[in-house]
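Hi all, long-time lurker, first post. I run a small reading group and we've been trying to get comfortable going from sequence to structure in the token notation. Rather than ask abstract questions, I figured I'd post a concrete chain and ask someone more experienced to write out its structure so we can walk through it together at our next meeting. Sequence below, copied exactly:
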Amino acid sequence: MSGSALVKHYMTKDVITVTPDTPNEEVIKLMKTTGHDGFPVKINGVVMGMVTTSDLLLKPWNHSVKDIMSTDIVVADQDMTINDAARVMFRMGISRLPVIDKDEKLVGIITNTDIVRSHIERSTPMKVNYFKKTLEQLYGIKTRLMRMKVPTEKLRPTQNKIYADELQGRTYELKRGLAEPTITVKSGDRFILVDGHHRTVAASKLGCKEIDSYIIELEKDIKLGLEKTADKEGIYTLKDIDIIDDAQHPLIAITGTLKKEKSQKKQ
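-- Answer (accepted) --
Happy to help. Here is the structure in token form:
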């Protein structure tokens, strides 16, 4: 795995698109129902342009997308680094880039929200590689890194509580296809969840049978310290995790405190 965060790690793959012949009235309805303010225009998988709220508001009214769409657009390669994509978006003054493969087919879209997420999420490639090396040094073994979908029911949690407000945020991300992979260790036939408890519980509650994960496979069966602690606390399945709804996630709590202090200063 590359040490750099790449566009393909953070882009949204299930892209809502329109065609040049889509009526503009349908585009407006689509914006209302999805909350998105722009869509790639494609034919046979190839991007022909973009249609955005600016096109609808600033250009003379026409019936179809083909009459107002922007065709002079910038696209990104899926192996581009997140930092390079961010530079392009900043310099071009745009909030999204359609992502194409070597055959110029649309494979995703990267937005400014994804860029922000790449900077705040925990499962960065750098973090995964750091944890992988730590395991190798700690236990004197070799490991193998994979990325795959794991059945949520097979994940063994190692955290005894999660926060309801953070759970709500992760649920929102999953619904929009924005959730990052979990970090999981495979030891023997066990999948030990290291990072991503909020995401996994949210996925389970949404009825998702699998969740995208970075898997660090150990070359031999070792019981990790995380597992031993989980054993002592009686944590074996996702149902054993307490959802704390009478306290806020530490980050949210800090934000709330600052807002309160700001409000008091105004008084």
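A couple of things your group might point at:
The chain is about 40% helix and 25% strand.
The first strand starts at residue 38 and ends at 43.
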